[in-house]
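During the second half of the funding period, the structural biology subgroup turned its attention to how the target accommodates small molecules. The most pressing case was zinc ion, which had performed well in the primary screen but for which no bound structure existed. We therefore specified the complex as follows and requested a full 3D prediction, including the ligand pose.
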Amino acid sequence: MKRTKLIYLLPVLALTASCSKDPVEDYEETGALEPVEISSSDEMAELANPALGNVTEVYFAGQQLTVEEFGGEYIYQGDIMLAPDMVSQEPVKLVYEKDETPPANKSVGRTSGRWPNNTVYYAIDANLDNKARVYDAIAHWENKTNIDFVERTTQSNYVYFVSGSGCSSYIGMTGGKQNITLASACTTGNAIHEIGHAIGLWHEQSRVDRDNSITINYNNIQSGREHNFKTYAEQGYDGDEYTSSLDFGSIMMYGSYSFSSNGQPTIVKKDGSTFNIQRNGLSSGDVTGVNNMYPYSSSGNTTTTTPEPIYVNGETYLLYGIWVLRKNDSWFFYSRTYGWKEVILRGSYWYYR
Ligand SMILES: [Zn+2]
């Protein structure tokens, strides 16, 4: 029989679900919260901020994205921060005329963002409480994967663990200092999850092939949180799948009841059954996927060399912010102005030929 318990789907409690405080007391104190029944897991999906931010549309990677805005910071899918210099309020030009000079800040999706030499540099804010969460999470990553974590000395690209209003991270190496925020309620498991984002992992339910494994019940999702359940491609990001199918045990996977508005599941398996969120550690699928992303070379040195992608004529790809068609070993882009027109990539900018 499925074990259930009462909790309240107020996000602040979702974040503090692992605390000893009894949610029933909170309910009686405030009298305002709706109790709902959810499945037995104590672990909750990560949130950058317990409050729902100002839900707004911005442009990122040439696509319109729904994000939450908190005082100038943009949060995507609950706990993913978008680098501010890659976000704009206006549509951004992504293909330039031959002689045009692109602006200094271009809004593109991350096509790489890997940490060179499989090494993540990090520093921990002196005021962060329970630093053991960070050390334990790092030790877990180092034990299980090819990735090394080295305390930063003078390196310019590094992860900075700092307290905040929730648990959050950027996706991949952004360049410069990039925060992972850990509120007091964030567990070691949440820290492992946020490090997963920082090394380049999307949420597992954001896979492009996820509809083979799960059904998203959009009617049960809290208003304003629907965008947390889109695939990375639907939201205009690039990415790739490093394992053959969706892993329900992934530490990057939401649970069936994550962000439910009504106690009904937001994500179910194809047979309609539910599953629990897992935040104990990396699953074997997580380890396989990460080690495919960050292979270990036989020479003893780790390497970030990834195989050259093979582009198939007749297929479309999301590359450097735009969807392009591969044809006759060249790239074509469709615009209202020109229809299909050949484009070439110079540096990280697309130009019309
Ligand atoms: Zn996350």
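Two results from this model are relevant to the next phase. Residues 1-41, 104-111, 298-308 have pLDDT under 50 and may be disordered. The chain is about 15% helix and 25% strand.
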